[in-house]
Amino acid sequence: MESLTLLGFGPTGWGDEIAWGVLVTASLALATLPIGLVFGFLLALAKQTEDKLLKLSADIYTTIFRGLPELLTLFIVYFGVNNALQSFSRATGLPDIALSSFVSGMVALGFVFSAFASEVFLSAFRAIPRGQYEGSSALGLSRYQTMILVVLPQLIRIALPGLGNLWMNLLKDTALVSVIGLTDILRQSQIAARVTREPFLFFGTAIVIYLVLTLLSSIAIGGIDRWTKRGEMAK
């Protein structure tokens, strides 16, 4: 009964705080996802270009952010970028500018996600037969039309399993933002465990919540995968 009371909503329980942590975690992951996907896609395009400088820049970017620990990337963005912004504000006399914990987490995780996503997209690009491009050109399609109508539908289907794994990693990596004060699931669980001296209860609750989020994500990804393959299944 005491455990139910501690996990309840209202002034005597921590349910409100835990629920807020779930909202923050989900919001951070969902806000980071489109940033990582767009930049990952652009990086994959850059790696296939004939422009050597652009290709080299993309390779350097992915090498750095695939090699750095996610926590160190988070510290660089939160502390390093904020220090740079403060120095700029003092030098120019402008009002202080600072990245919040949420924005810092979104930027840092977006860097990491895009670096790994670029490799997934690049592999998907290479899996599409060259004849698809040549056939589209023969039909009079422009490069833009070829990308939208021919390449992109196949790219999504091929890249989805890898991107799904990256999404699962992103959900788990959101826990890192607790070290810079963002009140996500882990941070709220830590506070509740310290105040109530019930670490097993609250960290166990956090485990269950992460597993539920992972299960829901797996169901959603499976649904998207079936949708992208609906033409093949109809045959």
Task: Indicate the topology.
Elements: H1 2-6, H2 15-47, H3 52-67, H4 70-92, H5 101-127, H6 130-138, H7 143-173, H8 185-196, H9 199-228, H10 230-234
Write up what this structure looks like:
With 235 residues, the chain is mainly α. The protein is 81% helix and 0% strand. The protein has ten helices and no strands. Helix 2 runs antiparallel to helix 3 and helix 6 packs antiparallel against helix 7. The protein is flat and about 70 Å long. It starts with a helix and ends with a helix. The mean pLDDT is 89.
Work out the oligomeric state of the chains in this entry: single chain
Strand content: under 5%
Describe the largest sheet: none
Task: State the total count of DSSP E strands.
Answer: 0
Let me know the average pLDDT.
89
Number of helices: 10
Percent range for helical residues?
over 70%
Rounded radius of gyration (Å): 22 Å
Secondary-structure element string: HHHHHHHHHH
